[in-house]
């Protein structure tokens, strides 16, 4: 057997089982070795059945006292039962619908049985236990791996297949020298893989996991180092006094004065452009902190130097909103702005694309439609992606290829906790807009039970009388199997009852884009009072007149999403409210929601969410186009991030080019495999 042979080589895996393994992403022996358990089950042999709390799971050793009986209980339900005796006491074992066991197990033979122990009619009984013959051996305490499964594959299947492979003692490639392993007190790779599947103790799991986590972190850091090494550009902008004057003129034409935070970020961008390095900057700013105008200023700088720029937004609604805002800022200065979205009329699209190709159009705003192969630019100098967590590395790089190594700005309202940005965004410099525009009032957030919704609707009506508007967001479009409020149902209920005299509309992700657009437009212009929706309104919608955000079944959403949704109100100078309706009694969920009641600060919320739920949930690695870690948990493995960094530095210092190249290849392969 070698590591790259198909899993069909393993005994017991035929054609049918093979397809099930494929579902788990396991194709060859190597995949199986790297299919780590997600948890372990500790099995202990019990000394005396009298110590048992019924319902607990234990291993009981016993000798069969009879040859078993099969009893038909009803219809096609049968039970096979044996009585046993062992040092722990007397007990029965029973299985449902496996009559052939009567011929498998032998009277007077001794077995280890594992399962839930119940007490029925005064006798101990293990129902449907797993069992093995005494001869197969059993430690007093056994730790068994638990793997993620798919329908048709059992824990037993996986354990057996992995055990078969481990027994072959296949060699696993080690890329770290002994001295490095010793220096950082790490297990060898082969040893770690063996122990992660077949640990003898908790400490062995910890040691194995630590080694494999380090490997994951070395790989991702090497990958980003590589990306960063590509960051050279020929596009250098010499912003002179005259340009600076023009930039100041644009600033004074704006309907507001830039905040200190906005000023600083614009300053940093200007500094970046003086360097030979390609600008690759993430601009983080809490919801409503005013990132759009910073993007517009950056685009203006490129325009002054004869370069085109592009903004890519995650949704059409947002692209259109940016178009409107940016046109208002920049068109008076002679900049021609074009919108590129899906479903444009053929002739319109043709005209826009021609303008971008011949350079008469200076600035493009659009959705992923911009990446399509027929878009060409005259001289693209700047690529801005908005809410980058919606775009993968892959899409970003496609957009980059539209220019010759253009500069990059990424805008995000989702703050990335420090640990993550440090570990992962080695390739991005980060700046933060840390001040809010003047005159904003804190949004008041309250968590309520759904029984109090009537009161909230009354309050919304009062706000509407004051000419304000409200959002109502639901977790689902249509009623599913669970109890959650769906947007469609709620919309129907509301227009038939409390809001029968109110202008209410519904938007959700399954509606046609133009219909969605039209409704959002109406809401934006104040022609609709209440918008019932799903999270399509989450990102970026700017309606300063809206003052109430009511979120149904708020416990269903992550904190980052809730904070984003809340950020749709309180964008003007009116006092605003966010109401989180939930009937959950889950203490953890309530604790999360309380974070929002007490904080309006996106960064603090992100950090808390990160601590409460872990980065996987918060961050959604796949959404970023990044390979997911199998074992690493960035909220716990801070020390390992540092160790991995040191190891990588040592490899670089010692000119281990071949090793580093291999690590990078493996990283790239994973990125390519993300769907
Ligand atoms: N310095 C400022 N003073 C006053 N208002 C401002 C300032 N900067 C931006 N605004 C206004 O604040 C609102 C929010 O700005 P913008 O839409 O750019 O926020 P954002 O950071 O993109 O928020 P989100 O992440 O929610 O999309 C807009 O109505 C904008 O006109």
UniProtKB/TrEMBL annotation:
It comes from the Bacteria. It is an enzyme of class 5 (isomerase). Residues 272-433 form the Helicase ATP-binding domain. Its EC number is 5.6.2.4. CDD domains: DEXHc_RecG (cd17992), RecG_wedge_OBF (cd04488). GO terms for molecular function: 3'-5' DNA helicase activity; ATP binding; ATP hydrolysis activity; DNA binding. Pfam families: DEAD, Helicase_C, RecG_dom3_C, RecG_wedge. Residues 452-611 form the Helicase C-terminal domain. It catalyses: Couples ATP hydrolysis with the unwinding of duplex DNA by translocating in the 3'-5' direction; ATP + H2O = ADP + phosphate + H(+). SUPFAM superfamilies: Nucleic acid-binding proteins, P-loop containing nucleoside triphosphate hydrolases. Keywords: ATP-binding, DNA damage, DNA recombination, DNA repair, DNA-binding, Helicase, Hydrolase, Isomerase, Nucleotide-binding. InterPro entries: ATP-dep_DNA_helicase_RecG, DEAD/DEAH_box_helicase_dom, Helicase_ATP-bd, Helicase_C-like, NA-bd_OB-fold, P-loop_NTPase, RecG/Mfd, RecG_dom3_C. GO terms for biological process: DNA recombination; DNA repair. Plays a critical role in recombination and DNA repair. Helps process Holliday junction intermediates to mature products by catalyzing branch migration. Has replication fork regression activity, unwinds stalled or blocked replication forks to make a HJ that can be resolved. Has a DNA unwinding activity characteristic of a DNA helicase with 3'-5' polarity. Belongs to the helicase family. RecG subfamily. This is ATP-dependent DNA helicase RecG. It comes from Alkalibacter saccharofermentans DSM 14828.
